[in-house]
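TEACHING EXERCISE
Course module: macromolecular assemblies
Task: Read the component lines below, then compare them to the predicted structure of the full complex.
Student: A.B.
Group: 4
Components provided:
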Amino acid sequence: MSTNPPALLEAESLTLVRDGRRILDGVSLGVAPGRVLAVIGPNGAGKSSLLAVLSGWWSPDEGRVLLDGWNLGDFDAAGRARRCAVMRQENVRPSGLAVLEAVELGGLARAAGAEEARDIAWEMLRRMDLEALAARDCSRLSGGEWQRVVFARAVAQIWNQSRPGVVLLDEPVSSLDPAHQHSLLAEARRLARDGHAVLAVLHDLNLTAQYADEVALMSEGRLRACGPAADLMQPDVLSEIYGCPVAALVDPKRGLRSLVSLPSAKV
Amino acid sequence: MVWLAVLLPAAMLLAAATGAVVFNASDLWSALTAGPGAVVTDPTATNFAAILWGIRLPRVILAALVGAALALAGAAVQGLFRNPLADPGLIGVSAGAAVGAVVCFLFGWQGLWGGWLLPLMAFVGSLLSVLLLRAFNTGFEAGGTAKLILAGVALNALLGSVLGFVLYSASDSALRSMTFWTLGGCGGANWLQNGFLAVFFVAGAVVLGRHARALDALQLGEVQAADLGVSIHRVRGEIIVASALLVGAATAFAGVIGFIGLVAPHMVRLLLGGLHRWILPGSVLLGATLLVLADLGARTLVAPAELAVGILTAAAGAPFFLWLLRRPSSWSATR
Amino acid sequence: MRLLAALLFATLPLTGVRAEPQRIVTAGAAVTEIVCALGAGDRIVAVDTSSQRVPEVRGKPDIGYVRTLGAEGVLSQKPDLVLVSDEAGPPPVLEQIRAAGTPLVVVAGEKSLEGVAARIQTVAQTLGREEEGASLVTRANSELAALQKVVLSHPEKPTVIFLHARGGNNLMAAGTNTAAHTMIEACGARNACAGFEGYKPLSAEAFAALAPEGVIVSESIVATDAELISSVPGLAATPAGRNGRVIRVDDAAFLGFGPRSASAALQVAARFSNP
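Instructor-supplied answer key:
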């Protein structure tokens, strides 16, 4: 758990039960402004469920979520949307909507006029290298392009407001090529450096190691460990969490360290 | 958009000037200036003023209001279900309104509450069918186009049998009221009914207009719309109720008329893009225009007899629907 | 001059003398038939669809189905009188026609052979042809008397059913509360389907259970008697089917309670007495 500065989004002992199964079991963590927190773990660990609760879509059976010190449940939809942006794992691609219009929707909860929403949208497109696609219909984008558009929309929600916001990302780079994976996560990190709090659910171990400041390891609904990335992105820790051997390969000449997962002995 | 705004009054003017009774320009002018209360002096001459004010104008206005209401409800339902094939007729909402109205006729209640009971019962019917549809479609989200259309087919079949049973057990006089009505048409229009319909239309339009942006957000997905700050449950409920209100009122006064709710919003989307601040008003204008023209055809093509206007809207709308089915974009927004 | 004519016309109803209507629109086959029988058929300018089978007016402009008339359509024929049966509708349209200043008279009457006289009288009065009306009524009454004589002379009532195609190819049988039922009883027969109301389709077992001795159908059915008996499931096994007792009627006359109804009934009753 982060201690200083105080977390912008805080989860306190979240428990979620569905069909008798504990999907989340006493999960407590906090996302601090200025930091990128990566949540990693095997499939079915509860990462997306955690995100669903943190974003207010599901109510936890036990525990609570605090957004900027206030109970998340006390916010109305628009108020929450202004402080907390979510990028989901799967996003419907509408037809008949242009990319610019989709990103402009990020400004829906804000009282600001159409002009400001448009300016912010253009700014987002610039940062995500999407300007050329501004007029393209969303249904005609490639998977990767669409993912970047969704990210841009999410950022547009909390952009340029008086207080920092929270950005929750659920596998934001799954459809992207390596170059765009780096640029999107670099953008996420830049958001954090600007003062926002960023939480990202990731699968790629190396990207996690490169871009996360802190890591939360989850499996079977429980938070196994949470701490600085440098401490936790270690082969022994990861092998145990994922249940398959993870090795670190070091290239001392170029100062690179990469994590490689190997098939488990059972295979 | 400007074109649409001009098209409607032009169509209404044409419809007002044309009909089974032939008006020449001076007849039209004298009838217009005579006003609705004109007294008949010469019984052997055609009473143009009475025809214009008592028969034709109310009918043209009814067609415009019904077309507008159906198109607006269609646009809202398509936005809500994220499904370009959601037409109130196809998905069974019109049938629900029909059942509500027919039950009202069955008991002879259509004159009660100063005439308000009929559209209210139709509204209840359409509301119930939307709720039933939600139950079939389990939360709008899952299943997509195929499931929605199938649910609509099932609902139409169910309501069709209820309707058939009610007609079967109706007394002769109730049947008389129902028969013309089930065919769908704007005949027998009067100013009082138009007044009721206008009230319902304005109520529905105001509610839906407030949710134009929410409807845009819904195109990204229901969860995503909530993420963007839309109070999903409240907004969804209001859109449903407002759409049912529009369909209910329109069906109560003009019977079941299909395809306007499908065709008008689509054409507007093709012309004006995907934002509901254009789609909603555009659908109102285009829907009104289409039905005014269809009704004009219904009452002039086989004059002095009349065609049921639903025949014309189906004749034009069904091929359009089939064409729509072929386009891949009809199926892409499937979640 | 026009003012004078207008004044004259306006005061005519007060004097009880009516100018004869020159342009009549009728709706309902029975009404049309009465108008023609009274000799005013040439004044009819437009009729409804069901009246198209009346020979005198065939081919005249068609104002549509009697229950779904259009106000403007009727008015476009510039009628000075609109005569409709009590089935005409929708009610708001009839109101609109009246509100436009055109006289509209609904010819009501009991749905029985006895009611025909009332209908004839209403039409005759409206047209100012009381004399012709009276003779038509006399003729109808004498046909009615003849019918009653035939019925009385054959106290055994055969059981029959009336089959009618209600929309599409669906042959349904007439129960109580139908024109057919009234006519069957007037012909001196018993309606086998008196157990239910309105028109219903019969299953093969139902036919067997009812065992009608005769079947009455519209003469417009194209199939021959043999084809009909074999195509309706269960009919062949009934006495009517076995003996080929199929009676064809002009259904407009048989069901319409118009001037030809009594003679239609007479023909059917005669068939019963001479199998």
